[in-house]
């Protein structure tokens, strides 16, 4: 199991990722696309980086809007895995 990050570590890591917000013990990213097809294409691109580090986001899709939520469920909050995956996701267009 991954170790929970401290509040100071979370704030430091948050400075390294753009577009993400912290809500309680979760990292949240919302992306909007032109249409449903583009939204699904983006979601499909999340598979490889998620599988590579064996950490998987919670995903909500609403037509052209994708909401990604990262937290480490078994640790009960944010860990380094969440920020590592957030950085990988941020590179996906």
List keywords for this structure.
single chain, 93 residues, alpha+beta, Gyrase A, domain 2, four-stranded antiparallel beta sheet, 4 helices, 37% helix, 23% strand, globular
Helix content range of the residues, please? 25-40%
Strand order of the largest sheet: 1-2-4-3
Q: What count of structural domains?
A: 1
Using only CA atoms, what is the Rg?
13 Å
Distance between the termini: 30 Å
| CATH homologous superfamily identity | Transcriptional coactivator/pterin dehydratase
The percentage of residues in β strands lies in 15-25%
Number of strands: 4
Helical stretch count?
4
Low-confidence region ranges: none
Describe this structure as you would to a colleague:
The protein is α+β, with helices and mostly antiparallel strands. It has a single domain, classed as 2-Layer Sandwich (Gyrase A, domain 2), CATH 3.30.1360.20. The protein is 37% helix and 23% strand. The chain contains four helices and four strands, in the order H-E-E-H-H-E-E-H. Strands 1-2-4-3 form a four-stranded antiparallel beta sheet, covered by helices on one side. The mean pLDDT is 96.
In short:
This protein has 93 residues and is an alpha+beta fold.
């Amino acid at each position: 199991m991954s170790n929970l990050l401290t509040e100071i570590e979370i704030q430091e890591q948050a400075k390294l990722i753009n577009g993400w917000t912290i809500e309680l013990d979760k990292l949240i990213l919302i992306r909007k696309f032109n249409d449903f097809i583009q939204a699904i294409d983006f979601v499909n691109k999340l598979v490889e980086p998620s599988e590579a580090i064996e950490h998987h986001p919670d995903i909500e899709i609403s037509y052209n809007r994708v909401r990604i939520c990262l937290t480490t469920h078994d640790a009960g909050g944010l860990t380094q895995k969440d920020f590592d995956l957030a950085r990988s996701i941020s590179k996906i267009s």
